[in-house]
Structures are given as C-alpha cells and as structure tokens.
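Backbone shape codes:
***
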Amino acid sequence: MIDKFQTQRYERKYFVTQSQALQIREILRHYLELDEYSAGKPNYSYPIHSIYLDTDQLATYWATVHGEKSRFKLRLRFYDDDPEMPVFFEIKHRMNECILKQRAPVRKDAAAMLVAGQYPGPENLLNPKASNLVAVQKFCQLTHQLEAQPKLHVAYLREAWVPCDNNLLRVTMDRELHASIERRVNLTTKMVESFHPSFEPYGNDFVILELKYTHYFPDWYRDLVCLFNLTQTGAPKYCACVMGIGEERISAPRDWNRAMPRTRWQKKF
C-alpha cells in the first residue's frame, strides 16, 4: 500500500464557490481518485479537527500575518471522538514556498500530559517507530520552548483527491470552516459557540481549494486555474479564525498549566 502522506510539498490555495467546486470535482475524476477517507462519505467529505497551540502573544499567528519566510504551526489533529483512535501531534513548517510536515500518532489519553510537559516516550505512541518518536519529541520541545498552549479548535470538512499509484499530487477542497476558543487539550468534536469566518466576495459560501504537489505544478493544474479564472491567495485557516474571533480574545492566557507539577521535560529543558 502506498503511503499518501506528503512530508514535503508545495501548495497553492484558491477560494472557489460551492458551484465551482462541483465542476472542479468532475474534472478531478479524470486525473485522480478519492482518497480512502473521502470515498463513500456524504459529499465525499470527512471531518478534520485541530487544536492549535500558540503563545499568549500569538507568536505563530503573527509570523504568518507578517509573512515570515520560515515559520511553523503546532497543532493536535484528530478526526473523531473514539478514545482508541490517535491524535496526531503535527508541526507544519513553511520554508519560503516549501511545506515540511512532521507528525506522530499519539494516544489520546497521553495528549494532555505531553502538552503539559511530560517527556514523551514510546509508550505514548500508537506506532512507536523511531521517526514517530522523533516527531513527537520535536513537537514537545517546540511547545515548551515557546510556552505554547491550546488556543483555538478549528474544524472543517475535507474532500481529498490523490493519484492511484503515487503521492506526488494531492487536491483538497475544504468546506464549512468554523472554530471556537479552546484553552485545554479537549479532544472532542463538539464545539461551543463556534465562529464561521467569511471571505469577500463569497461570505460564508466558499470552498478552499488546495493544489498540492511535491515536484512540479502539472499542466492540468494550470488548465484548471485558467478555466475557472482563479487567483492564488493565502488561506491560513488558523489565522482567518483568529482574526474573525479577535486576537485579544484568543491571546488571553489560561491558568491550568501553571497548576501542573514540574515534569521530566520541564526539568530537562
């Protein structure tokens, strides 16, 4: 089975209407196939939930807003409420135009302890291979160097298309973006007082189209962009939701982590 996860890639983002998204879907059928998570789902879409970690000064948010060439985000990504399924500790690092991703599947019952400062070990992982352990240790190191904490729960529905025999391309269409303030590692899909950002001229009726590739931007990608007269844009979901809710509300510190006992990680670093 081919691993479709792209650890290094380039991506271009566009806003399209719901109507355009349906037309684009029909074109994608000629080049790609639905990934295993989209196939058979209503509207070919599956839910994605992420808890973003940031400093009280929103350092990773402002790095994106200011367009820093080298920047990263820290997030806990999960897909359902099943306690036996993993939560992925992810670092999404941008170097100029290149996206580098590290992630590791962590046991949900270990997530809060690791974010609070416990040193990660193989027992915390669902798959304890060396690369996963390195990824989660790097995540925890960055988290505690920054003193980053949970700030925002972001969710949306994703329709994903991939090649049948390699991982060189990936096209996603994300709908129903919404977010709520989250001050702790609360791995539930239920959200309270969620906010739906809007983008001119689409309002709330938009789809985020992402054309992803590892080597070159194929000709049929170019034809697709020209056919719908699309304009490349930045569409960072975390930043859009922070702006919509308000930086001052998201940046407000919480106090539960201050009550946590010092741990091996905090002593070491």
Notes: The two ends are 39 Å apart (CA to CA). Helices lie at 18-28, 59-65, 108-116, 130-146, 219-227, 237-245, 247-251, 264-268. The chain has a mean pLDDT of 90. Strands lie at 8-16, 33-34, 46-54, 70-78, 87-95, 98-106, 149-162, 169-181, 207-213.
